[in-house]
Design a protein that fits this description.
The longest helix has 12 residues. This protein has a 5-stranded mixed β-sheet. A two-stranded antiparallel sheet has the order 1-2. Helices cover 29% and strands 30% of the residues. Strand 4, helix 3 and strand 5 form a beta-alpha-beta unit. It has one domain: Glutaredoxin (3-Layer(aba) Sandwich), CATH 3.40.30. It is an alpha/beta fold.
């Protein structure tokens, strides 16, 4: 997993409308880059809504929020619409970006191992340097936790 003081890795991924979005297009702003497993699942719903609920406050700190999961752009569009999510959701269908950030790895559920997204968040400063990593995230209050760091 990338660490604090590492340079972020640029990428280009499609958003919920199919438009390409690059990390480098946000240079000069702080970026909250969060990786989450799957749209419309209990933990991911809580995490997305926690960011939604403090989104305006995060914007006031000069930061933007970008969520990344392997879900399709169509899935992201439904997810955004259902929960009123005002931030970018990007589709990393081949999980290459998650792998580059160290947010893809082995997980266990019900005694079975599988590969998937490791819920994690990276705060990237205006120059593209990672200034904070949240390697294990508790979804419910994560938006507030990130806002507290940014404030």
């Amino acid at each position: 997993m990338l660490k604090e003081n590492d340079k972020s890795i640029d990428f280009i991924l499609p958003d919920s409308e199919g438009k390409e979005v690059s990390l480098s297009s946000f240079k000069g702003k702080k970026v909250v880059l969060y990786f989450y497993p799957k749209d419309n699942t209990p933990g991911c719903n809580k995490e997305a809504c926690s960011f939604r609920d403090v989104y305006d406050d995060i914007l006031e700190t000069g930061a933007v929020v970008i969520g990344v999961s392997p879900d399709s752009t169509a899935s992201h569009e439904k997810f955004k619409s259902k929960f009123g999510l005002p931030f970018f959701l990007l589709s990393d269908s081949d999980h290459k970006v998650a792998e580059a950030y160290g947010s893809w790895g082995e997980k266990k559920m019900y005694g079975k191992s599988y590969m998937g997204i490791i819920r994690s968040t990276f705060i990237i400063d205006e120059t593209g340097t990672i200034i904070k990593v949240f390697p294990k995230v508790s979804p419910e209050k994560h938006g507030e936790e990130v806002l507290k760091f940014l404030s």
